[in-house]
């Protein structure tokens, strides 16, 4: 009987109480993050998470890092191709033919879903995006630099999804 009471007590405490407490605390202290870092457009429509990249094909948008999973969050994963794999080389050549030179745009994202690019990879795209939006390149460069985030172990990065949304909001083309 003691074992059953102990089991029920621990189940309620650790299986119900603890998860509810952690969830409540997260909702109270970090509501945006606890709800998936959701991004909405000007009309209030949910368009994604700040933590997940999305594909952008039009010239007026900055291109995110290529995804091995084609930006499918449920199947998100990296490619297991080695540096000498013909398919990997062919992809890099295809990206280079499209005008990309930064390594971050010549290779696929490690997670397949990272919305961040190194500052150098974003700056490489300034002329194309500025022309498509009718902006001055130096104006766009200033906007980019004002939204850079310190890289954890590497260079400064830009959240390409947030940058593209900001441009749609403030600089329509």
Automatic annotation (TrEMBL):
Compartment annotation: Cell membrane
GO cellular component, one term: plasma membrane
Statement: the UniProt record of this protein carries the keyword Thylakoid: no
Membrane protein topology class: Single-pass membrane protein
Annotated keywords: ATP-binding, Cell membrane, Ion transport, Membrane, Nucleotide-binding, Potassium, Potassium transport, Transmembrane, Transmembrane helix, Transport
InterPro entries named in the record: KdpC
Pfam families named in the record: KdpC
Transmembrane segments: none
A GO MF label: ATP binding
Function: Part of the high-affinity ATP-driven potassium transport (or Kdp) system, which catalyzes the hydrolysis of ATP coupled with the electrogenic transport of potassium into the cytoplasm. This subunit acts as a catalytic chaperone that increases the ATP-binding affinity of the ATP-hydrolyzing subunit KdpB by the formation of a transient KdpB/KdpC/ATP ternary complex.
Stated family: Belongs to the KdpC family.
Subunit structure: The system is composed of three essential subunits: KdpA, KdpB and KdpC.
Protein name per the record: Potassium-transporting ATPase KdpC subunit
Organism: Aeromonas diversa CDC 2478-85
Underlying gene: kdpC
């Amino acid at each position: 009987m003691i074992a059953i009471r102990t089991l029920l007590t621990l189940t309620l405490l650790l299986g119900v109480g603890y998860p509810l407490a952690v969830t409540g605390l997260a909702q109270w202290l970090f509501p945006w993050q606890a709800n998936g870092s959701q991004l909405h457009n000007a009309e209030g429509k949910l368009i994604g998470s700040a933590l997940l990249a999305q594909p952008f094909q039009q010239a007026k948008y900055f291109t995110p890092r290529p995804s091995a999973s084609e930006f499918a969050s449920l199947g998100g994963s990296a490619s297991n191709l080695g540096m000498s794999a013909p398919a990997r080389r062919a992809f890099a050549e295809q990206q280079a033919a499209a005008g990309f030179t930064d390594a971050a745009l010549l290779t696929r994202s490690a997670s397949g879903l990272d919305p961040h690019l190194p500052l150098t990879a974003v700056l490489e795209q300034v002329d194309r995006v500025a022309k498509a939006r009718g902006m001055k390149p130096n104006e766009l460069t200033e906007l980019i630099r004002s939204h850079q985030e310190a890289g954890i172990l590497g260079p400064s990065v830009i959240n390409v999804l947030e940058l593209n949304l900001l441009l749609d909001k403030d600089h329509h083309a």
